[in-house]
Amino acid sequence: MSSQRQNLDSKSCESSQYHIALFPFMSKGHTIPLLHLAHLLFRRGIAVTVFTTHANHPFIADFLSNTAASIIDLAFPDNIPEIPSGVESTDKLPSMSLFPPFALATKLMQPDFDEALKSLPLVNFMVSDGFLWWTADSAMKFGIPRLIFYGMSNYSSCVAKSAAECNHLFGPESADDLITLTEFPWIKVTKNDFEPVFLNPEPKGPHFEFILKTVIASSISYGYLSNSFYELESVFVDHWNKHNKQKTWCVGPLCLAGTLAVENERQKKPTWILWLDEKLKQGSAVLYVAFGSQAEISTEQLKDIAIGLEESKVNFLWVIRKEESELGDGFEDRVKERGIIIREWVDQMEILMHPSVEGYLSHCGWNSVLESICAGVPILAWPMMAEQPLNARMVVEEIKVGLRVETCNGSVRGFVKWEALRKMVNELMNGEMGKEVRNNVKKYAEVAMKAMEVGAGSSWGTSNYSMSLSRAVGEEINRNDFGPLFRKAGKKTSLIELMMHAVAAPKSSYGYVVNSFHELEPVSVDYYNRQGRAVACIWVSHGDFSKPTQGERNRVGEVEGELLVGNEKKESELGAERVKDKRILVRDWLDQIGDAGIPERAGVLEPL
């Protein structure tokens, strides 16, 4: 195993109530929120071990320099044909078209990861990025509960899942026609709000392979940690938790972790902060402009952005990638009194929190949206990729904390001319609609701060932080609810793999055809159909030989329905026993044909 350890002290882990392993995906946008989480965990007396790669180690070590968190470096795979040597983060990829092979290649790190887990002090649970799907197998192997971290909003997760499961994306509509969602009738989307891989009724290729692996891994994990706060998207948090086995817990906004801690003393302010200080002295409002580290913007579009900013006459701070240098002849000289161009990584939260910044022209990556909301800065939405179009809809249409740029052809992915950009920049910074969304975002900023208050906030509801998180693996989900296959690793890896595929297969299927009839089990059929599972009829019994655990019995008892029938031998209690709510529990041998005439009968909904 090729690994490097820093501050790994078994005694320090043993002395803490909890020891948590964190494994962020190799991208700053995915890494930073989990490092904020590490800070919060550490400040609450929890031992933290962070996994990363050699090239990503310096950034993480610097971020965690004021903690005793342990860092374990794993060797990133060499000789991946499509990936340039030395690239260990998506931020360094020459093109995002290389993301699928990069993400799939991370699987080769699993042997080193497993070896490292073996030597660690007891890990109470693991939080790993959803893109690192293979960590679910490692967690199962070592009996470690795994929670998934996805850097997405609950809104975009629910909307995407609803659109896919209801087959909204395969209809005759054009790519830019509005489609009303069945589950959320007030929300309208277009096919262009989704990546092409989701629009193919018969998807294939490395991108789909990667997505399928993450779905399978999610189905055997304990739940999700969401970098959000309940008050921001309560409708979608509640919807997800009602309709999905894997629940989500809001633990954010994690970007406020730094503001809740004692800030590091800065020896010298960077030039852009000094520039913002000067604008504040002048009483001049500033528009912050940034499109993330991965968006690929054409030279033609960059030039129109530059002209639009210049013609808007507003003050702006624009962060661009080093390779994005074609901004037009003499542009930087012409705008030097009211515009500054930055070509390096910046602390975005520090910029947004600066009192001179009053607007943000953003790609609507979820981290950026959260940071802008927490800073009370309204957004001019210009989505570029991934789930950003859905985030933009949330910003503009759902919570109304921003406006949207206008493309020349009306398409979500259309070109934005400089005249349209100038118009919307001025509206955000000086117009009536800008004032309205500015007032809205400031209200959410106050709620966000309260959500992170220790002992009071919705995201951290107890002063004992370890108890707050332990609910995700203790109170809410009991390991006894799972069969032996999921409780112990064993050596039956082929069976585990089979079960993973069996769980995931229905998610990509149209529905079920079951040997039954509706009049026999109307309650069960209606229940399944309400859950988004297209099913005709179903009757499942756990048979004569299995021995359900008490946790499994409890889970069955929680199933909604007017009538519930089980088939279970128990010598101490034979015969039929009526219980409330029109449910029947049969604790004796059941003639599945002869007893079919039980009035209003409903079958057990899941095999045990």
Brief overview:
With 608 residues, the protein is of the alpha/beta class. The protein contains 23 helices and 18 strands. Residues 8-16, 260-265, 461-468, 472-501, 531-540, 559-565, 567-584 and 590-608 have low confidence and may be disordered.
Notes on the structure:
With 608 residues, the chain is α/β, with parallel strands linked by helices. It folds into two domains: 19-258 and 457-477, Glycogen Phosphorylase B (Rossmann fold), CATH 3.40.50; 265-452, Rossmann fold (3-Layer(aba) Sandwich), CATH 3.40.50. Helices cover 36% and strands 13% of the residues. It is built from 23 helices and 18 strands. Strands 1-4-3-2-5-6-9-10 form an eight-stranded mixed β-sheet, sandwiched between helices. It has a six-stranded parallel β-sheet with strand order 13-12-11-14-15-16, with helices on both faces. A two-stranded antiparallel ribbon has the order 7-8. It is globular, with a radius of gyration of 26 Å. The protein starts with a strand and ends in a 22-residue tail after the last strand. Keywords: Glycosyltransferase, Transferase. This is anthocyanidin 3-O-glucosyltransferase.
> Which fold name corresponds to the CATH topology of the largest domain?
Rossmann fold
CATH class of the largest domain: Alpha Beta
Shape: globular
Number of strands: 18
Kindly report the spatial arrangement of strands forming the biggest sheet: 1-4-3-2-5-6-9-10
Please report the distance between the alpha carbons of the first and last residues. Answer: 39 Å
Query: Mind telling me the CATH superfamily name of the largest domain?
Result: Glycogen Phosphorylase B
**Can you tell me the residue ranges where pLDDT is under 50 for at least 5 consecutive residues?**
8-16, 260-265, 461-468, 472-501, 531-540, 559-565, 567-584, 590-608
CATH architecture of the largest domain: 3-Layer(aba) Sandwich
Major sheet summary line: 8 strands, mixed
Helix count? 23
Residues in helix, % = 25-40%
**Whole-number total of structural domains:** 2
The secondary-structure class comes to alpha/beta
Strand content: 5-15%
